[in-house]
Amino acid sequence: MNPIALNTAKADDSAQRLEQLADTAQRMLERARQLGASQAEVSCNEDSGLEVNVRLGQVETVQSSRDRGLAITVYFGQRRGSASTADLADASIEATVAQACAIARYTEADPAAGLADPALMASQFPDLDTWHPAAPDADQALALALACEQAGREFDGRISNSDGAGVSSNTSLAVYANSHGFVGRERSSSHSLSCALIAGSGDGMQRDGWYSAALAFADLWQPQAVGQKAAQRTLERLAPRSLPTAQMPVLFAPEVSRSLIAHLVAAVSGGALYRRASFLLDSVGQALLPPWFAIEERPLLARGWRSTAFDAEGVATRDSMLVDGGVLQRYVLGSYSARMLGLQTTGNAGGVHNLQVRANAPGLLQMAAQMGRGFLVTELMGQGVNGVTGDYSRGAAGFWVENGEICYPVDGVTIAGNLRQMFQRIVAVGEDVDPRSSVQVGSILVDQMTVAGNH
Asked: Taking every annotated instance into account, which residue ranges of this chain make up the domain Metalloprotease TldD/E central (predicted)?
């Protein structure tokens, strides 16, 4: 348990607030119908949060926020109009619905426009354990942040400065409703504790950090552990070297390996596909990855980062394979992109939900031993990824591995390749999953990429 008691005195009125949002959504739908809309959908949300930051033992910021918003999309046949507001007053709601209807009347018809198929609407709403609102108040959060930073700064005399530590806590209530009669209610929470430190002096200074994140505050690392982990990572980066330009194996640590999965998902998502802006066009049924490789989407996972019983259109979600046996099983589609492609939605309006990548290796150290000699990447920089061609080029930092052992820090290098070829050249995925993301994947070893350094 955390050393400071959480603030649990405030009663949880989230159920009542969700009902109020649902009632507002229903009123907006009814008003749209009265104004002549053939279909309509409404999204309502109410978000609140606390964020504190400290640096060098002093309070820098304390910010409390509470936001809400309403958005409506109406359809007059296949003409569409949207409007939004943050004001829940009756006059503002009336004006927002009227504005959306006015926009729709003057837009051109879009053959793919419209709500999702009513037969696909979710009807089961299990408790997915995503609601854990208990959190520290401002004074408690500041005490946690100060303890975290202090533990990092005192860890080693070579820690020369700090970029600060912070605590954040957020809750979200959301309702989606449409004229099919669907009303979906969701509530979720997220919390984090972070620290960033600086080691060394002059031109030899290095910066790094660490953070813990969870849906429940009690699941966060202890503040001292976060601060010490941040200090260790910062010290490990002192006295870095560059590398000669060469072809070599590249091992992606868990905190960066999920970006490779994100590139795959982006390339097989509907928007990129119907715009013909993906290097993986017409790839369903193709072997894109090694025969042992698999990715499963698990939207109904208890306490998952993106667990949900329905997508952004109310379509029921379900567990399904995205990649199996290295073969792409399906695309990632909402109703609009599915219609543009002549396909059916996959329940992914709004994105994917809890991807789990199958492992075939224990973890980073064992994979480094398997690699023998190569580059371990712990940080990626820049956005040098071409979604149309799959060409990949990003700045990187990490460590040189020799004889299976991590030898010295490296920065000032670029790693490059082509994503289609990189996917085929994945030789191992570790069990060392980074739990701080909805993409559950461990370290990834690619057996050959170009690493370009200053030598």
From this structure: 132-238
Handedness of CA 302, 307, 311, 312 (dihedral sign): positive
pTM comes to 0.94
List the alpha helices (DSSP H) in 131-221.
138-153
Res 455 pLDDT > 80: no
Q: What pLDDT is recorded for position 1?
A: 39
Residue 169 tokens, joined: 């806590």
Asked if 206 and 378 count as a contact pair (C-beta separation under 8 A), the reply is no
| Whole-number Cα distances in Å, 372 to 37, 219, 249, 422 | 64, 36, 9, 19
**Cβ atoms of residues 289 and 358 within 8 Å:** no
Q: How far apart are CA 337 and CA 261, in angstroms?
A: 21
Q: The tokens of 197 are what?
A: 């430190």
Q: Among 63, 210, 65, 66, which Cα is nearest to 141's?
A: 63
Task: For residue 268, give the nearest of 322, 305, 317, 313 by alpha carbon.
Answer: 322
Q: Where are the domains of the chain?
A: 14-235, 239-259+359-452
| Exposure string over 301-328, b if 16+ CB within 10 A, otherwise e | beebbbbbbbbbbbbbbeeeebbeebbb
Band of pLDDT at residue 383, cut at 50, 70 and 90 = confident
CATH number of the domain at 14-235, please? 3.30.2290.10
